[in-house]
Amino acid sequence: MNAIPPGRRLLRHRAGVIGFVITVAFLVVALAGPTLVSEPPFKTNFRAILKPPSWAHWLGTDELGRDILSRVVHGARISLELVLSAVLGALLAGGGLGIWAGFRGGYVEMMTMRAIDLLLALPGFLIALVTITILGVGTVNLIIAVGIYSIPTFARIGHAAALSLRPVEFVQAAISQGATDLRVLLHHVLPNVLSPLFVQASLRMATALLLASSLSFLGLGVQPPMPEWGAMLANGRSYLSTSPHVVLFPGLAIMLVTLGFNLLGDGLRDVFDPRLRA
């Protein structure tokens, strides 16, 4: 029987398709959206403070008369940069450490994985808070904090995959022929580890977005007047009873994008799981 391509298997996964559509829509808004909205995200209008949604302002205005649609759209690009930078950094650092530890074994594996276990024993949000406290607030430090929070997950996955591949025949054959450790890792181990790492990366996007938004909500992430969704929620919470639209639309954006990343990750996990391919 011919194997079904991963793309077709994903199209048969309803939740995965929904997650893919939401994720692609988020990417399109983040990349092209700022060029499509006419209102600048920082433009204030004190004659249009806390206006409800209308033809002039489709999602209404905030406490400074700024157009919420423009700020939500521009906030998508900020969130995309934060999430991609943090998850990609964690993928490279954590996955690389885990793969190297699992392949090398011995003292290197023991010391590396005990350090990863120590990070896993601490609450992830506490790790991010401590990192921000040490480095200070700011966008770059927020990326570092979210990345450190995500490193242990990728390290454990890379370690487990490398451990399972180390005794396999083609890896042992390459070692017996005198291939260097780097060549074995790049040509034989890494291609077989990428699938679980990429699936975890898609799932981790949602967690990273929630963490970054939470830190910005507390004033420890992206600083005003940048239109970041968590910061927009923090600024609008005082007007929740009188002008709920100020927090409604940034909150919906966070919820939808998180849902899209989670559904897409679930779909990719089912597609690449060999036990479910039948």
CATH superfamily (homologous) name: MetI-like
Q: Which regions are unreliable across 5 or more consecutive residues at pLDDT < 50?
A: none
Q: Please give the largest β-sheet.
A: none
Give the SSE string.
Answer: HHHHHHHHHH
Radius of gyration, Cα only, in angstroms? 22 Å
Structural class: mainly alpha
CATH class: Mainly Alpha
The total count of helices amounts to 10
Provide a compact summary of the structure.
The chain contains ten helices and no strands. By secondary structure, the protein is an all-alpha fold.
Structural summary, described in words:
- α3 packs antiparallel against α4, α3 runs parallel beside α10 and α9 packs antiparallel against α10.
- It contains 10 helices and no strands.
- It has one domain: MetI-like fold, CATH 1.10.3720.
- It is mainly alpha-helical and about 280 residues long.
Main features:
71% helix; MetI-like fold; mainly alpha; 278 residues
Question: Secondary-structure map with pairings?
Answer:
Elements: H1 6-11, H2 14-32, H3 68-104, H4 106-121, H5 124-135, H6 139-165, H7 169-176, H8 181-217, H9 229-236, H10 245-272
